[in-house]
Specification:
The chain is α+β, with helices and mostly antiparallel strands and 92 residues long. The protein contains three helices and four strands; from the N terminus they run ββααβαβ. Strands 1-2-3-4 form a four-stranded antiparallel beta sheet, with no helix packed on it. Strand 1 and strand 2 form a beta hairpin.
């Protein structure tokens, strides 16, 4: 599962399909209906539950940090101080 905006986030974990019409109705909104052009009770609409194991982010909004990060990587220096990327292991 990912999110991209000014930064990029990726979540890794185990996914499972949730077959619960009541939960679909609870989570459904008018925005979902407009975007998907269907309703929560459509059999093609499914819920996916992700049990997160780890998350990683990349800070993409700062051009200077990106240049510093790639320069340090190319020259063999530690790129940790640029704070452009971080991985977090989550409790299981």
């Amino acid at each position: 599962m990912t999110y991209a905006g000014k930064s990029y986030v990726s979540v890794r974990g185990r996914a499972e399909i949730v077959e619960d019409l009541g939960k679909k109705k609870e989570l459904w909104s008018k925005a979902n209906e407009k975007i998907m052009q269907t309703s929560y009770d459509d059999p093609n609409v499914i819920l996916i539950k992700v049990n997160a194991e780890a998350a990683e982010y990349w800070e993409t909004g700062n051009f200077t940090k990106k240049i510093a990060f790639f320069y340090k990587r190319m020259t063999g220096q530690s790129s940790k101080s640029t704070d452009i990327n971080e991985t977090v292991e989550l409790n299981k």
